[in-house]
Amino acid sequence: MKRAIAKRITIALGAAAILVAGTGHAFACSNGMLNGDYAFTITGQILAGPTAGPVSGVAMTHFDGAGNVTQVDYVAHNGVLPAEEWRPATGTYTVNGDCTGTYQLIFTDGSPAINAHFVLGKLGREIQSVVSNKGTAIMGKGMKVESPD
Known about the structure:
This protein has one helix at 2-22, and strands at residues 35-46, 53-64, 68-77, 87-95, 100-107, 114-121, 126-131, 136-144. By secondary structure, the protein is mainly beta. The chain has an eight-stranded antiparallel β-barrel with strand order 1-2-3-4-5-6-7-8. The radius of gyration is 20 Å and the shape is globular.
């Protein structure tokens, strides 16, 4: 008797999991979902040119919920520390309904602009990005900075 009940529960849970998995998103993402400060880790490689080599760093990025972004970063290229301790940038971003998107950052020091593609996770509290500039293999992972309240 107990085995029969356990088997029915297992089948019911399996069927429910299949139904939930088949429904996809129950919501649509938007620019407003990407709102607040995000702490990023940056890793990868520049494949050619005078700064070719490994890249590693951190960034604090602010998305305003309306398509505008500001950032400061500290990134080492090929083991060389940056000339400016916290390099500022501004730019724009777009979030698509399927939680994918793009952003562009323009740096104040004249460095090349960064164009990136991203996906949002955890209801907008996590962002994973890849730089789409030619000759790069750089990824970033950002987590929303939560207030202690």
